[in-house]
Hints:
Oligomer: heterodimer
Strand content of chain B: 5-15%
Structural class of chain A: mainly alpha
Shape of chain A: rod-shaped
Order of helices and strands of chain B: HHEEHHHHHEEHEE
Number of strands of chain B: 6
Strand order of the largest sheet of chain B: 4-3-5-6
Strand content of chain A: under 5%
Shape of chain B: elongated
Number of helices of chain B: 8
Largest sheet of chain B: 4 strands, antiparallel
Radius of gyration of chain A: 29 Å
CATH class of the domain at 230-322 in chain B: Alpha Beta
Structural class of chain B: alpha+beta
Helix content of chain A: over 70%
CATH topology of the domain at 230-322 in chain B: Fusion Protein Consisting Of Minor Coat Protein, Glycine Rich Linker, Tola, And A His Tag, Chain: A, Domain 2
Number of domains of chain A: 1
Number of strands of chain A: 0
Amino acid sequence: MTTESVGLLYMLTNAGPVVKFIMLLLLFFSIISWSIIFIKFRYVRTAFRDSAYFTEVFWQCRTLADAFSKAKALRSSPLARIFIAAYMEASRTENKENLAAKKNAGSTLQTMGSVNRTLNRAINVENRRLVQLVSFLATAGNTAPFIGLFGTVWGIMSTFQGIGLSGSASLAVVAPGISEALVATAAGLAVAIPSVIAYNYFNDRIRVLNSELQSFSSDLLNIIERDVFKKLEA
Amino acid sequence: MNIRSQIQNRRSVASELQSTGPGRFFLVCLVSLICHALFFISLYFLHDFQFSAPKPKVITVDLVAFAPGPVNAPTSEKLSMPGEPTPDKADSVSPDAVSQRPSQPTEPKKAEIPIIKPEVSLKSKPHNLKNLIAAREKEPPPKKPPKENSVEKKSKQEEKTKKKLEQELAKTKKEQAQKSEEHRQAQLKNALERMKASVASKENGAQGTNPNGNKVAGATGGGGAGEASPLTLYQMIIKSAIEQNWIFNDAMAGLDQDLEVRIFIKILKSGDIRDISFETRSGNNYLDDSAKKAVQRANPLPELPKGMFSYELVLGFSPRGLK
Lengths: 234, 323
């Protein structure tokens, strides 16, 4: 029994308009979600790598200015970015103090507060950048199977209508239509599975990065505080 | 000063956000689109991906052989591969032929008003078949022994068929256009009878081996109906008989609707088909196979019109239908 097997493409071109539309929608979902996966994967990977490198460098540096010059070369790391923001804020207030040539505890407290707020804001910006496109992956992963299922149900519906019209329910009449309809479900799953996997992966990575940012900002605040008080005592 | 620096900060943040923003995103989308296109193109060219799961060989089992009661036919002939041509259809009983025996097209099927006779059901089919097998074993020219329980009905039926046949003759000479409609009605009737038959056979525990079989039992093989019937009518009968046995789905054959496979057959006086051979192949294995199987399933056809000893013809099968 050598039946000439039918290609997927032939099936798709032979399907009804609704199934075709659904397949196109799924193709769109697939393209977008894969490009998001690509972009986010690269972004998260470089963020991780550079952040690890930056922390290593940061703890080896003797002064904040030294660390600042290193951080400027590592702009792709979120840690380096929040460090730059905090350092610029701290140096600004310090410069003002130096110009005014008055050193008191009140001004140092004000410096600490402004640095803290700047750090918080920088962390918020970083978080927003990290989770920027990931929500679409969740959407695709949750809805694509249902979209595919809709196509399948629609295809089977029209198949049964055809059976009713032709009046013959032999397997040769029924089977191809149903297998054609099932392609939609298969496509939906093919879109959904990578999206869900990627979504979970990115969520995990983002959580880790976020905790790193928080802990680094606490460390940085401590260091700046010590630094400022040393200067105050000097 | 402070406000200005904040604004600058905001701007720098915005520009940083935009560095991985819309432009680059669309670029990556384009790359992704290209990847998808490549994927589908590779699907198109890699024929290994198509549904080429190893298909198990189909074994046709005639369940009638396992029905309780004396069975004269040797069991070795009860198993056969479909598609494997049986060498001598007249002498040996192939299960296909046996199970197809009741599905011979009869003239009542061509009636305009489908009259369903539930009495002529398959309730006696296995019994009848056993007789048939026995008879075939004894004497090579196949003749159906009359059924004990419905002799009167059969004689009535034959009269009816004769009348109907004469009407039919007049019609075919007058209007050929009704052919298709009649065929449709015949199909409707067939479907109804098939359902009835399947119910009956389920009740009996005997099941037909092919989905298209199990039509009305008790056909006389056109024996009484062959009187002075023209060749055109016989051709119509053959056409409908083979079409009913043709299991084909054009979705499976691919895009080409112009394929045609031509099969040469020779019909003996008894209605047996001999010398099935391809005159021209279509190149599509599925179409060729299904056409050959249809011819084998339709065997034996009703007897030839009187005065003819053999009849040779060429059947053309294409996805559009049977010539």
